[in-house]
Amino acid sequence: MSTDDAPPRYRVGQTALLALVSEAEPLVGHWRHRFDSSASAGVPAHVTVLFPFLDIDRVTAAVVDELATLIGARSPFAVRFEECRRFPDVLYLAPAPDQPFRALTEEMAERWPEAPPYEGQFTEVVPHLTVAHGRPPEVFDEVEADLTGRLPLTATISSVSLLVSDGSRWRQHREFPLLG
Fold first, then answer.
1. Which end of the chain is less enclosed by CB atoms within 10 A, N or C?
2. Residue 118: left if φ>0, alpha if ψ -120 to 50, beta else—which one?
């Protein structure tokens, strides 16, 4: 618990569907641990498929089976991260192609409309791998300068993971392979 008694960033039982990108850890891991609070909460480098998903007490055996079927119907795919981009408060790596991530998000959100991406905050969900957030532009400039000379990064997305929060840390609960 923090000394300023700030409320936890994540709720106990909150879940997320994430495409983990382990190949990115050597490139972005140290930056994420410094400038992305989700990394220090145990979330690996990833592209979000759906956050928040259903609270863990709603993830029944039937939901797990349906996730396995929907995700398993898709094929693994290669992705390249060739450049850094920014949202107003986020520095991220942009995946190319991003369509497979968009399709996964759309399918999950359509199936579970009670769990809209990012609680419906955005009209368009842009797939991204967050490296830093909530920092001044000069920090983003420093991180981007370091990463730009070390890109591109290629990865294979072969599964989607369901992570669950205990209020301060995230842990992997299930992994759903893309079987195609």
1. N
2. left
pLDDT grade, residue 130 (50/70/90)?
A: very high
Q: Has residue 144 got a pLDDT over 50?
A: yes
Residues 6+ apart with CB under 8 A from 175: 159, 160, 161, 162
- In 4-95, where does DSSP find H-type helix? 25-35, 37-40, 61-72
The pLDDT of 117-121, averaged and rounded, is 92
The angle that helices 137-148 and 25-35 make with each other, rounded to 10 degrees, is 170
CA 17 to chain centre: 7
Count the residues in the chain: 180
- b/e string for 69-95 if b means 16 or more Cβ within 10 A? ebbeebeebebebeebeeeeebbbbbb
Q: pLDDT tier at 161 (50, 70, 90 boundaries)?
A: very high
How would residue 9 be classed by pLDDT, with cut points 50, 70 and 90? confident
